[in-house]
Amino acid sequence: MLTGAGYTLVFAMAAMIGGLAIGFPVAVMRMASLAVVRWPASLYVSMMRGTPLLVQIFVIYYGLPSVGVEFDPVTAGVLALSLNSGAYLSESLRGAIQSISQGQWRASFSLGLGYWQTLHHIVMPQALRVAVPSMSNTLISLIKDTSLVSVITVTELMLATKEVIATTFQPLPLYIAAAVIYWCLSLAFEALQRKAERRLNRAH
Prior knowledge:
mainly alpha, 204 residues, membrane, Putative glutamine transport system permease protein GlnP, cell membrane, MetI-like fold, transport
């Protein structure tokens, strides 16, 4: 079970990194003035948030092979979690970026900085301070959502628990133990969240 918990942590971190890699460009696309750029990003966010994660896992692992696209269970699980979390992270980042006043943008442009320079040097450092709580919630949710990849035979905490139950026939204490492990992982990330918030709020 502890080995499964280790895999759960790895899956959650990999999905968080993948989700950020997807979420940031999607957030920028969602704020674009051109509809041809904005609409695909909006469709992606709506589809990911409007369908169950379990269905997304099934589509990627069981559905895509029918059109010639096949992934191993680990890759399929991480991809599904990344795509799902990317939609939520994009909204967190978009809201944080839009919370920065337009005066910051205009002042930066008046100094000769371009859009991407302003976004990178002026806006994002301030937006991250706003986005940390919601991004941390997404990571904590990812830790719990990794239990769903057990349906495609990925060995994480929940599947490891089921395997132990199959040999010991003691479901109640083992499921309670699994819940406690998930809780401890969540508490650890809550502590990291508070530390990150204190660090980012030092100037405020």
